[in-house]
């Protein structure tokens, strides 16, 4: 197009409009039906707006459609190539599907190549047009040219449906036995796709896959190993059959490790690392839970671990796969230690990805090879200072897993130091891990209390809700440390009242042990003289602070009230403080204040007894935990034989008579009334005790709502409990517990029911399930079933266990029926 000179008096807008029109005309001229693919790409890239690009593509697609309707003019492959580029840009190109079918049937290689490429991009197994190319693929698989056969193999491996795989599987098996290595490696990968689509066809390829291991070509070997791996993963019988080829795989692997430099297969000094990784992965599958196969590969794994250079990424990949194989088979203890040492070397690598996968692997084996992992504790702790958030999280989880009774003091110092500077998203997880470790391995109660107080001071806003009652329970059991604890908490309260959990524990301790605080006789800390006014001033500051939550004010008000029996000179001030909150806007605080005022006025003689010091809280006491007795065990009741007469001790019989007297009955034993004829016959109760049992026979104990276990995996147990409210409504409670040694985090439950059922999910009680069954998470689901259809529910369980995201689906087809 010749350049046009515009007059100087043209405005800027007129020049731009004229320029756009010129470009549009040039595009119309360039986008003639005979335009080449390169020219179309140039024009599309030259578009300055999305609308301009869309217009160019619409005109070109219209021209392509028009040419598709015409007879074969030699430009079909060029038009389909342009249409594929349009498809890559995200525009619709489905009208080219039938053209792909025509080009695949063409005898010309250049058209067949574009047709197969279009089929792989525009067709999938759900399209009806894909069935039309089955016969063409079958014919091309028998073509004399290896390149045409290759096109058919690649297309079948990319988008072959189950029906196509069943029809063409014999042809693939024939090509696996061909003499051409180029065809055999592509046929092996095509067979992998067929096995994934139709697993029962795996037996067809087993003999050919076994024969491919004798090939020298690395491409064929790679395809054979991938095919054997797929076959072994999907069929136990095939796995047993291929365990016999372990020595042959070991010889192939040794040849790769010990071979000299080969330019064709060398990658960063490693001979064909891709094939080595595939063979090691197959050896891991074959050696799992099998002593014979594991013994055959122990020497090879040791050789690979010692002779592979880990300075390059290729060598690190081979070593990492070696470590996974060693840990998964029944390997020798020395070899496992060598594998852990390799992971320890990975921790020193500058590549953060390698450090990350190293700590991920160590996390999986820390329970079985704890001592071997402990040798790298210093390196793991240093990773807590890494700038990468993912590496830092992995290092934290691994450090918490390494805590033991031997290293609790030294490792806890590092964790507390990390807590003071860790990112906010890791603070809650760090605090929870420190609490669990301190509870399990605390060397003394004082150390335990100091550690928890340090965590509360540093990250008190990020701790779990149960931290406060757990710490209170710990303090009550440490009777020798009451004076030390109340002094330390008082100083923390005076210093900062922003940390609510710490303030709540401090208020509770001051209320319980305020007399020890006032005496000032504490051998554990420096003597500090605290007056009654000082203590009341601190509590009143908490009550009046805008930072205090309603729960914290409740703790402070109760502590103030309890001090009325522990001090002597400021009782009137306490009465005044309590009376102020009798008209508080917070209902809970107002109720407490009114009750305390009544205690001052009407029941002052009982105040000292009501506000006396709390007894020691025992975790195993009844009511503290569900299902635990005071002794920690529940003895089963011994079965007794029924006799014709119920014999009762003399004293209980007299007590029964006394009870009957209170009820207005006679003092002598009552005679039982005759039983109806349709009742079940049993022993006759002729004593007064039996009469009383007859009187109370109609009082049945209300059974607990039915509960069933619907999910149990990775230490996580999910139970379902139903409670029918109305004829059409039902309450369902989902309860999740954790029996592993680490907290389960990021727990989410999602439920789905039939369309005719209305579902409402309440907020869960939390998203962290404490380890060792120390807590649980509950979520209530409300169902309304107006049509009374058969109720089914599908629950998706998502959680994070030791850094690994787990997701499962649970199908619930039957619900436990309520008993009332």
From TrEMBL:
UniProt cross-references to InterPro entries, sorted A to Z: Adaptor_Complx_Large_Subunit (IPR050840), AP1_complex_gsu (IPR017107), ARM-like (IPR011989), ARM-type_fold (IPR016024), Clathrin/coatomer_adapt-like_N (IPR002553), Clathrin_a/b/g-adaptin_app_Ig (IPR008152), Clathrin_app_Ig-like_sf (IPR013041), GAE_dom (IPR008153)
Topological type in the membrane: Peripheral membrane protein
GO cellular component, one term: Golgi apparatus
Major location (coarse): membrane
Compartments it resides in: Cytoplasmic vesicle membrane; Endomembrane system; Golgi apparatus
Superkingdom of source: Eukaryota
Membrane spanning residue stretches: none
Positions of the GAE domain: 703-816
Pfam families referenced in this protein's UniProt entry, alphabetically: Adaptin_N, Alpha_adaptinC2
PROSITE patterns recorded: GAE (PS50180)
GO biological process, one term: intracellular protein transport
Keywords noted in UniProt: Cytoplasmic vesicle, Golgi apparatus, Membrane, Protein transport, Transport
Signal peptide coordinates: none
Family named by the database record: Belongs to the adaptor complexes large subunit family.
Protein's name according to its UniProt entry: AP-1 complex subunit gamma
Gene source species: Umbra pygmaea (Eastern mudminnow)
């Amino acid at each position: 197009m010749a350049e046009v000179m515009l007059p100087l008096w043209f405005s800027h807008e007129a020049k731009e409009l004229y320029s756009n029109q010129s470009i549009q005309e040039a595009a119309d001229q360039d986008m003639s039906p005979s335009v080449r693919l390169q020219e179309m790409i140039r024009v599309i890239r030259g578009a300055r707006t999305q609308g301009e690009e869309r217009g160019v593509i619409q005109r070109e697609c219209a021209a392509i459609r028009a040419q598709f309707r015409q007879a074969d003019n030699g430009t079909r492959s060029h038009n389909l190539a342009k249409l594929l580029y349009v498809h890559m840009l995200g525009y619709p190109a489905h009208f080219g599907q039938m053209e792909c079918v025509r080009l695949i049937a063409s005898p010309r290689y250049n058209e067949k190549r574009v047709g197969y490429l279009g089929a792989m991009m525009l067709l999938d197994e759900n399209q009806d047009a894909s069935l039309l190319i089955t016969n063409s693929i079958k014919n091309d698989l028998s073509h004399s040219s290896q390149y045409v056969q290759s096109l058919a193999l690649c297309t079948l491996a990319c988008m072959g449906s189950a029906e196509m795989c069943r029809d063409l599987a014999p042809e693939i098996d024939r090509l696996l036995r061909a003499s051409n290595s180029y065809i055999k490696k592509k046929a092996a990968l095509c067979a992998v796709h067929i096995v994934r689509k139709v697993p029962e066809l795996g037996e067809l390829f087993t003999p050919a896959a076994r024969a491919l291991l004798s090939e020298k070509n690395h491409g064929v070997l790679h395809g054979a190993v991938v095919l054997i791996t797929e076959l072994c993963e999907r069929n136990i019988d095939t796995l047993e059959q291929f365990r016999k080829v372990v020595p042959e795989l070991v010889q192939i692997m040794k040849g790769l490790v010990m071979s000299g430099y080969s330019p064709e297969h060398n990658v960063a000094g490693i001979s064909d690392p891709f094939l080595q990784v595939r063979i090691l992965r197959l050896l891991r599958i074959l050696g799992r839970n099998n002593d014979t196969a594991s013994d055959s590969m122990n020497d090879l794994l040791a050789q690979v671990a010692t002779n592979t250079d880990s300075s390059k990424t290729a060598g690190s990949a081979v070593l990492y796969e070696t470590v996974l194989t060693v840990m998964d088979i029944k390997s020798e203890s020395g070899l496992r230690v060598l594998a852990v040492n390799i992971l320890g070397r990975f921790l020193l690598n500058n590549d953060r990805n390698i450090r990350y996968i190293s700590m991920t692997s160590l996390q999986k084996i820390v329970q079985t090879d704890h001592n071997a992992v402990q040798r790298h504790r210093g390196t793991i702790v240093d990773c807590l200072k890494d700038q990468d958030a993912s590496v830092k999280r992995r290092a934290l989880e691994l450090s918490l897993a390494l805590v033991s009774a031997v290293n609790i003091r030294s490792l806890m110092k590092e964790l507390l130091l990390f807590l003071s500077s860790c990112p906010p998203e890791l603070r809650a997880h760090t605090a929870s891990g420190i609490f669990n470790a301190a509870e399990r391995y605390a060397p003394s109660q004082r150390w335990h209390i100091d550690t928890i107080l340090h965590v509360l001071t540093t990250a008190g806003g990020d701790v779990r809700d149960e931290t406060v009652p757990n710490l209170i329970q710990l303090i009550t059991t440490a009777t020798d440390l009451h004076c030390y604890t109340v002094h330390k908490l008082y100083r923390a309260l005076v210093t900062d009242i922003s940390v609510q959990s710490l303030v709540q524990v401090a208020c509770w301790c001051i209320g319980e042990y305020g007399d020890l605080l006032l005496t000032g006789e504490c051998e554990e800390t420096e003597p500090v003289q605290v007056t009654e006014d000082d203590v009341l001033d601190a509590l009143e500051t908490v009550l009046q602070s805008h930072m205090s939550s309603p729960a914290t004010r409740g703790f402070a008000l109760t502590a103030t009230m309890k001090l009325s029996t522990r001090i002597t000179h400021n009782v009137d001030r306490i009465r005044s403080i309590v009376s102020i909150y009798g008209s508080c806007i917070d209902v809970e605080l107002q109720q407490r204040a009114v009750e305390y005022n009544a205690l001052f006025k009407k029941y002052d003689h009982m105040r000292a007894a009501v506000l006396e010091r709390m007894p020691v809280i025992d975790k195993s006491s009844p009511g503290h935990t569900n299902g635990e007795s005071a002794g920690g065990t529940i003895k089963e009741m011994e079965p007794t034989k029924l006799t014709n007469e119920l014999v009762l001790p003399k004293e209980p019989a007299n007590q029964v008579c006394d009870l009957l007297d209170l009820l207005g009955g006679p003092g002598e034993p009552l005679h039982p009334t005759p039983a109806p004829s349709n009742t079940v016959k049993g022993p006759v109760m002729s004593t007064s005790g039996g009469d009383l049992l007859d009187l109370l026979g109609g009082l049945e104990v209300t059974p607990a709502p039915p509960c069933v276990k619907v999910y149990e995996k990775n230490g996580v147990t999910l139970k379902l409990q139903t409670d029918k409210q109305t004829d059409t409504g039902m309450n369902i409670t989902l309860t999740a517990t954790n029996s592993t040694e680490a907290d389960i985090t990021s727990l989410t439950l999602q439920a789905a029911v039939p369309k005719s059922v209305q579902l409402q999910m309440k907020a869960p009680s939390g998203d962290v399930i404490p380890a060792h069954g120390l807590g649980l998470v509950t979520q209530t689901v409300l169902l309304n079933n107006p049509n009374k259809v058969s109720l089914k529910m599908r629950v998706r369980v998502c959680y994070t266990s030791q850094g690994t995201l787990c997701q499962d689906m649970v199908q619930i087809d039957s619900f436990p029926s309520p008993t009332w």
